[in-house]
Design brief:
The complex is a heterodimer. By secondary structure, chain A is an alpha+beta fold. Chain A contains eight helices and 19 strands. Classes of the chains: A alpha+beta, B mainly alpha. Chains A and B meet through strand 6, helix 2 and helix 4 of A and helix 8 and helix 9 of B.
Chain lengths: 379, 296
Amino acid sequence: MADVKIDHLVKNYNPGVARDVLRDINLDIKEGEFVVFVGPSGCGKSTLLRAIAGLDDITSGDLYIGGKRMNDVPPVNRGVGMVFQSYALYPHMTVRENLAFGLKIKKIDKAIAKERVAQASAMLGLDSFLERKPKALSGGQRQRVAIGRALVQHPDVFLLDEPLSNLDAALRVKTRIELARMHQERGSTTIYVTHDQVEAMTLANKIVVLSPLTDDGAASNLEQFGPPLDLYHAPANRFVAGFIGSPKMNFLDGMIEEAGEQRTRIKLDTGISLTASVDSSRGRAGDKVEVGIRPEHTVMLDDPRADNRVTGTVQVAEHLGAETFVYLEVGGKDFTVKVRPETPAAPQSQFDIGVPADACYLFDAKGQAFPRTARFSRT
Amino acid sequence: MAMVESQSVIYRKLAAHVFLWFFLALIIFPLLMVIAISFRTGNFAVGDIIPSNPTLDHWRLALGMSIIDESGRTIPPPFPVLLWLWNSVKVAVISAILIVALSTTCAYAFARLRFSGRSLLLKAMLIFQMFPAVLALVAYYALFSRITEYFPPLGLNTHPGLIFAYLGGIALHVWTIKGYFETIDKSLEESAMLDGASPWQAFRLILLPLSVPILAVVFILAFITAITEYPVASILLQDEAKLTLAVGSQYYLNPQEYKWGDFAAAAVMSGLPITLVFLLAQRWLVGGLTAGGVKG
């Protein structure tokens, strides 16, 4: 077990020619934490994981695992175990041989190796497959072998690269729960890469949101590092706000009409005014802003919390039984709302929805968030 | 369950079958002729495909046994055919093994390591290989006669020398194996390295076992090339006792006397090791070795 510290890490596959993949990443991952790296494809989350594993070298900056600088330490001596997205099982070996391979290479005492394999196999329910080759296993079983192979090494840090992306939806949920339980039991530091923010929200103690670097000269592509609910309620910027939450947050353009420490009045481009529980004291009236509203934070107009009213044209309504999503067009922008099941919403009709002031997020022209003065939850 | 076919498709299939049988006959006929000649009395190139007066004399001579002709004279075997065959097999097996070893390691470097000049080297290798070895015969001779001066065991008129010359022709094999390596997911080796394997262990314990089919193919190709090779062997080898069968069997054919029958027996024999190697190697030519290892 160990903590992981990343200090001003930069990764560039071809310095001077190519663009950085990771820029100025600073992370302090505590012992026993379950940290999830999320971000859209191309944001470098897998690269960061590979850099921690030692499969990719670090261009500049430092990496510490358990207090030791690991920049120049080969993967095997870093005390990490990794589960690959593709599983990377050795196809010519049985499950037992797959599990025992690393122990054999490291010349670990046979009795101990046998015990560790038995332990991992029992824990992951692989006992009846031990003599099978990977091709005779289902996707979920292969996945567990891959996890088991990392487990038997007794790693200080457990690295998982999109381990669930090749499983079907039902198995994904099941394995997700198993992973969470495993982490609770073993308590080892775990770093998990995914592009699925539901996985991130459900598994993580802390989430790292990364964004793809463009040529705009951003100082870093680490957008935010914090507990899942902090990211949900207090995203640092528009990128994190748009990435965390499903369906995505809605954004409407506007400008500050009246700045304030507790409440801010915003005039939307559609013409209507909106009150938001946001501290906009660093802004001034007339500043261009974007208002963010989560689909699940909208309320019906008859709700006492419906401080603001937004009107849109219905594009599509999805009745899922437990809930209904209505896709609106508001001032030329898509606007999704989550409403009570079976709420009628005929296509092309006008649809009014209430937006509580406490539910609004506000971002300045650079996409940085203004601090919110309240946290809203519908129930 | 067969698909329902229209009449014209059936005719076209029939035509295809006729063509294929014809083509097959065209390929097999020369082989049958050589076998027929080897059993025909006397040394005649033309005659019935099923010898009217079959004899084992040519085979006896080829196998190193003396025969007694009509006048009662004992005729000893003119050439050490079995020794030549042994020489051929020895040279072919050793050079094929070395070629597989060299081209595999070479292909690994090209497929997995990044170094400057990599693509240039790859292309250059292929381009150099495009010049027929025959055109370089003089160069071969000159090189090996110089080697003889300094290190005779690897020089002219030695089998190691010949094998050494054959090792030059691996460019094509390197390309073949490299292509195969590139189909194997790199994460397998990365995983092995995380498990504590050295690059050499990852190569030997993970990559090689998965590459057996392509190694078998390269072995067979290298073996066939070496056993049938004539120009270089005929330049480098001189003593009768050191010749390979491909070179030696030419001795049967000189303008004074074409010993077609003896030649045919030797020719059929030279085909035997190739057949044997192919049959042995076939069990390694299997697909699906990498199945189940990676997904997505």
